[in-house]
Specification:
mainly beta; single chain; about 120 residues; 4-stranded antiparallel beta sheet; 6-stranded mixed beta sheet
């Protein structure tokens, strides 16, 4: 059974930075396109960023492009999301998963951007 464990969230002021991590256990994911997703209260989960298996191709949502960077360490089965210049609208619970979403969702990690 694959398990996804997200970490690294927190409360920051606008303009701050965070680095989120996702640890995958149960299987290797080096062949899978992986991504980060954000869910704000009362809203559907939205894809924020994605990265192909070998890390060569990345994609970003329009709202975060230029401010975030997704990366991965396949040997350690880790996925990262570096977020800079955070805005209040970036707040939400962040999850990782494959794209398409093959695995059970983890608990996510909360990001709150507020002054």
């Amino acid at each position: 059974q694959v398990q996804l464990v997200e970490s690294g969230g927190g409360s920051v002021q606008p303009g701050g930075s965070l680095r989120l991590s996702c640890a995958v256990s149960g299987r290797a994911t080096s062949s899978l396109f992986m991504g980060w997703f954000r869910q704000a209260p009362g809203k559907e989960r939205q894809r924020v960023a994605g990265i192909e298996g070998n890390g060569g191709e990345t994609m970003y949502g329009d709202a975060v492009r230029g401010r975030v960077a997704i990366s991965r360490d396949n040997a350690q089965k880790l996925l990262f999301l570096r977020m800079n210049s955070l805005k209040p609208e970036d707040s939400g619970r962040y999850f990782c998963n494959s794209i398409p979403n093959f695995f059970p969702w983890g608990q996510g990690t909360q990001v709150t951007v507020s002054s």
